[in-house]
Specification:
Elements lengths: L6 E7 L13 H19 L3 H5 L3 E12 L8 E11 L4 E9 L4 E13 L4 E2 L34 E6 L13 H9 L4 H6 E10 L8 E9 L4 E8 L2 E12 L6
Antiparallel strand pairs: 1-3, 2-5, 2-8, 3-4, 4-5, 5-6, 7-9, 8-11, 9-10, 10-11
Amino acid sequence: MSGITREYCQSYILTAGECNAQGIMPVTLFGARVIEVATFHANELGVGYDRLIADGLAWVLSRLSIEMYRSPKVNERYTLRTWIEGFNRHFSERDFEMTDSRGEVIGHARSIWMAINIKERCGADLAMLEPLRASVSDRVCPIEKMPRLTAVSGDGVQESVYRFRYCDCDFNRHVNTLRYMELLLNQWDMDFFDSHVVRRFDIAFMHEAKFGEEALVRVLPVADGCVYLAEICGDEGCYSRGRIQFVDYHYEMK
C-alpha cells in the first residue's frame, strides 16, 4: 500500500442551520463530522463502503469520546483531522483533532469502529483489511480513553420513555448513532443549556435499536451535578450507555 494517506483533513464553515439554540456547534454535529471524515478517509484508503459491501459488511461506530475546549460559532471556519491509532481483527481505533481558522486546537475525539455482517446483524472479522495496519499513525491523541460505563441505578435517577420512529433510522435500518446522542441531550431543558455546555461526551453503542421499539432513558447526576451517567435501554437489553460532563456557560441573546 504505497502512498498511504495516514492523516486526512476536511475543512468546514459552521452555518446558522447547523448551530444549536445558543448559536454554537452542538456536540452532535461534532459527532456527525467524525462519521463523515472517517468515511472520507476510509474511502481514500480503499476500505470504505464499496470494499466492505462486497463482503456483505458495513462499518458501524462502536464507541465515541468527544472533548470540546471551545465550540465554533456561526460562520466560523474549522478543520477536522483524522488518523488511525490502532487496528486488529475486531476493531479500528480512529482519532480526531479539531482546529479553528487560526490553527488553535478546540477539540479532540476518540472512536472505535467495527464491521457488522449486514445479513446476520453480528460483528465481522476484519482480517481481510489487514493491509490497513500500514496506515496506522504514530500521532498521539491527548484525551483519555473512554472510562468503563456502568449501569445507571440508585437514588436520583431521572427517567423518560421514547419510541423510535422513521427519522431515527439510517441506511443500516437501525437507529442512527446521532439519535442516541440527541435523545440523551434532550433530557435537559433550554435554560440548562443557556448556562451549561458539553465539555466531554462519552457514549458506547451496545445493541442496535430498530424502528418502533420503545426505549427507557435513564440519567443520573454524579460529581456535584457536573457529570451525568446515562443509558438508553429496551426490551432486548441496553442500547447505549453514556457519560456527559458539562461546564458553566453564559448565553447572551443577540
